[in-house]
Specification:
heterodimer, A: mainly alpha, MetI-like fold, flat, B: mainly alpha
């Protein structure tokens, strides 16, 4: 008995000594933990206002509990179905059409034999990623109005017969969102695929060439299977972000006229929370979104593990 | 024999056509990536009233530097630029150094409590309080209408921390050992040995954080409620674009061009160029860093 406690004590003192040896290291970690506690964990605790009738003039503790009142209010809101359809619709468009584009771009860019030109194209294609949505929004609002560049181009090519205000008509909004987003991120998203492609064993291609495989066959049978793990990871990430329909982009492109097709969960939270001051309601809407997003992430991860034997976490 | 030769020729012909089409496609991609910037530049170099009539695509119609003069003589725009520069420099430096300082001990496998610290951080990657609770916290901390709202809440990033940890692990331990024998403590080792050896990863993260700071308009919109002198240029531009949007929708298109319109267009175009050019000039030189940095983060995890 005494021996046991002695051993325990000794173990403890060894840990203690070890701890003292790394006291500088520990002192360097602590500020980070405090930062995370304040800026990540306190707001998580602040989510309780979704279940309370919170007023800005009083503290959170003083606010009375109201249960799921604000969630019900959101589900019964006349905007609810529109917001959900827009959020999921825009994201699905970006997933189905926007997701394969960088892969195709990477495959095609990889076929460019002139290395200087390849490098040049790659560098240029990153450029839009570094521009802010505000600047792009400024360009797009000018280009897409009824006298803008796009209208002149489309009319010259006889695609449209008369002037169209693309941001002044709800039915074009999803298309505008998809195209502008794909354009902005095309080159940037391709980086990861290009890196994966470049690490494919070159001998496989040489062997395939000897066997008389065509370019297409090489891509389908060698390149794509080799990078499918990377594709799976990117797909999981994209699916888990299905309810994040690019806030910055939509904030700048939406207006009073296209709002029926441009209002998504995030912009709605901002609008009801910050401009109308309905803090509890906005927090409830946001929490609803986070819960679904987390479920999506888990489902996507699980199915990738089952189907491809590869998961993110 | 003959057949084989002809198939070879046929294939190389197909390859040639493919190569040509592919090159044309890549040139097209380059064009659509550069052209919007070019468009803004030529329009900003054109007389503002004339530019409102549109139709300037390749070259200024009435060359003028007046727009830039207007921007540089407008004190509120200059103030907004100052805020942007200050928040980018201070915010990025603080973020990189602070995150690195926390990452270094966590890269040591024998750190007591390491598992718990990492779990504590990993949670933050999956859950967040969201917009309103964050706003209320900042309000409580007195960060609203305060310059430090751009710096302190952006001082740390757990994802960047993971990238740094992976990088720090690659540094040979012998270097730290020899510094330790010379009597240096862990903090000194971090400062004098680790930081200088980690330039590639620090540059990568500084680039991401810097571009994020430079391009961010939402912080200014959300947390600066009654002190316009603390608004960065992107928030300033955001307000202008949103205003143009709503006035376009109200139907006041080019038909009634007022002096006020032409001034605001001038400021908008010139400010767009000034905010964009620094990034266009810097990123091509840093690209070897960010591609490498992204790889470190992606491959090693």
């Amino acid at each position: 008995m005494t021996e046991m406690s002695n051993l325990k004590k000794r173990k403890k003192s060894v840990t203690m000594r070890k701890f003292m040896n790394q006291k500088y290291l520990q002192l360097m970690v602590i500020p980070g933990l405090i930062w995370m506690f304040i800026f990540n964990y306190i707001p998580m605790g602040g989510i309780v206002i979704a279940f309370k009738k919170f007023k800005i003039t009083k503290s959170i503790a003083e606010a009375p509990w109201v249960g799921f009142k604000y969630f019900e209010e959101f589900f019964q809101d006349s905007n609810f179905s529109n917001i959900m359809i827009n959020t999921i619709g825009i994201s699905l468009l970006k997933l189905i059409i926007g997701f394969p584009l960088p892969i195709i771009f990477a495959l095609l860019l990889n076929e460019i034999r002139n290395l200087k030109f390849k490098k040049f194209t790659q560098t240029i294609s990153y450029l839009p990623h570094f521009l802010s949505w505000v600047v792009l929004g400024g360009i797009l609002t000018t280009w897409l109005n009824s006298t803008g560049v796009i209208n002149e181009l489309f009319q010259a090519l006889h695609i449209t017969s008369g002037p169209v205000s693309y941001l002044g008509n709800p039915k074009y909004f999803w298309g505008v969102a998809l195209i502008s987003d794909s354009w902005k991120e095309l080159g940037w998203s391709a980086i990861i695929y290009l890196a994966a492609i470049s690490s494919v064993d070159q001998q496989l291609y040489e062997a395939a060439t000897v066997d008389g495989a065509s370019k297409m066959q090489k891509i389908m049978k060698i390149t794509l299977p080799s990078i499918k793990g990377t594709i799976a990871i990117m797909l999981i990430l994209q699916i888990s972000g299905l309810l994040n329909a690019n806030f910055d982009q939509i904030m700048i492109l939406k207006n009073q006229i296209n709002i029926s097709r441009s209002q998504v969960i995030d912009t709605y939270v901002y609008q009801v929370g910050m401009t109308l001051g309905k803090y509890s309601y906005a927090t409830a809407v946001n929490l609803f979104k986070s819960v679904i997003a987390l479920m999506l992430l888990l489902i996507a991860n699980l199915s990738s593990k089952k189907l491809l034997g590869r998961s993110l976490y | 024999m003959k057949r084989r030769v002809s198939s070879k020729i046929k294939r190389s012909k197909g390859t040639l056509i493919f190569d040509i089409l592919n090159t044309i496609f890549m040139l097209f991609i380059c064009f659509i990536c550069i052209y919007p910037i070019w468009y803004v530049i030529v329009n900003s170099l054109n007389d503002a009233t004339d530019a409102l009539m549109g139709g300037i695509y390749w070259w200024p119609r009435q060359f003028s530097l007046k727009n830039y003069k207007t921007v540089f003589s407008d004190s509120s725009v200059l103030q907004a630029f100052k805020v942007t520069i200050a928040k980018t420099l201070i915010g990025t430096t603080v973020n990189v150094l602070f995150t690195a300082m926390v990452a270094y001990p966590l890269s040591k496998k024998n750190l007591i409590g390491r598992k718990y610290y990492m779990a504590f951080g990993t949670v933050t990657m999956f859950f967040s309080g969201g917009l309103i609770p964050t706003f209320l916290l900042f309000k409580g901390l007195g960060l609203l209408n305060n310059f430090w709202v751009y710096v302190i809440p952006a001082a740390f990033n757990f994802f960047n921390l993971l990238i740094m940890i992976n990088f720090f692990r690659e540094i040979p331990e012998a270097l730290e050992e020899s510094a330790k024998i010379d009597g240096a403590n862990d903090f000194t080792i971090f400062r004098k040995v680790i930081l200088p050896l980690s330039k590639p990863v620090l540059a990568t993260i500084a680039l991401f954080a810097g571009v994020g700071q430079w391009n961010d308009y939402f912080g200014g919109l959300m947390y600066i409620t009654d002190n316009r002198s603390l608004e960065p240029i992107q928030t300033y531009l955001y307000r202008m674009v949103a205003q143009v949007q709503s006035s376009q929708m109200a139907g006041s298109i080019a038909s009634n061009i007022s002096a006020k319109d032409s001034t605001s267009t001038a400021i908008k175009l010139a400010a767009m160029v000034i905010t964009t050019l620094p990034i266009c000039c810097v990123y091509p030189f840093l690209q070897k860093y960010f591609v490498k940095g992204m790889m470190i983060g992606a491959v090693k995890e």
